[in-house]
Specification:
Elements lengths: L1 E4 L3 H5 L2 H13 L3 E3 L9 H5 L3 H14 L5 E4 L2 H13 L4 H12 L1 E3 H8 L8 E8 L3 H6 L4 H7 L3 E5 L15 H4 L1 H17 L4 E4 L2 H13 L5 E4 H5 L4
Parallel strand pairs: 1-2, 1-3, 3-4, 5-6, 5-7, 7-8
Length: 239
């Protein structure tokens, strides 16, 4: 099965280990992975900030970049959701709407692809840790991916999962929200970190780099001994 990796900006610029883990995991599951170097930002930051017209240029670039892909897989529910939104944003342009619909139809978040397309729930991972899981807003509420991550994590040997209080609550990142509404964002992430600490887990797992960057950054600043890992890294682990 041929898969094209949509790495996302945050992975590309801040957390390349997630991209590496994603490729290694997919290849171990029998996929042939390609990475088009012409990919850019999906346009989400600009779009969420109200620059709709400007964001469409980046969207068109991404549509063209992945036009020949059989499956598009990304380690980000947020960015996968943005691809799914493209058809609505090009509703008044038949040419680009059709291309956007094609792009959206073959786009999957990583765990969604593994469980729903590859039909795999045990990837053979091993990680000895006590962990809790943060569920990102875009992935669960907009993309609708809720069960796939937990199905995969429950089959990781050595991993003990503990529930997170108010798991449905936003971490305060929200892309440009954390910049525009910094004080509110800070209170939200502090509440999230507090609940993570209450679990007594030594590891926080998430499926969106933005959330993990926000929560992990706050954990580091407050000096708490809690490690943060992307689910791709957990599923690719062998220790």
């Amino acid at each position: 099965m041929k898969v094209t990796l949509f790495a996302t900006c945050l992975v590309d610029m801040f957390n390349t280990s997630v991209g590496k883990a994603t490729v290694e995991l997919l290849e171990r599951l029998g996929c042939e992975v390609t990475f088009p170097e012409s990919q850019v930002c999906c346009g989400q930051p600009a779009y969420n900030s109200g620059y709709v017209k400007e964001s469409k240029e980046a969207m068109k670039k991404m549509i063209a970049t992945f036009a020949d892909s059989e499956y598009i897989v990304t380690p980000s529910g947020s960015c996968a959701t943005m691809f799914k939104e493209y058809p609505k944003l090009f509703a008044d342009d038949e040419k680009w709407r059709k291309k956007a619909e094609m792009l959206a139809s073959k786009t999957y978040e990583l765990t969604q692809f593994i469980v729903d397309v590859l039909k795999v729930e045990d990837v053979g991972a091993t990680l000895h840790a006590k962990a809790t899981v943060h569920a990102s807003c875009h992935m669960t509420r907009l993309l609708g991916v809720k069960e796939a991550p937990m199905k995969l994590l429950k089959n990781v040997k050595g991993l003990t999962l503990v529930p997170l209080k108010n798991v449905q609550n936003c971490c305060g990142f929200g892309g440009t929200f954390s910049v525009k509404m910094g004080k509110i964002s800070e209170q939200m992430v502090d509440e999230k970190v507090c609940h993570v600490e209450e679990t007594d887990a030594d590891l926080l797992i998430g499926a969106d780099a933005g959330c993990l960057m926000n929560i992990g950054g706050r954990i580091e600043r407050t000096g708490k001994a809690i490690k943060v890992m992307h689910i791709a890294e957990v599923l690719n682990s062998r220790v």
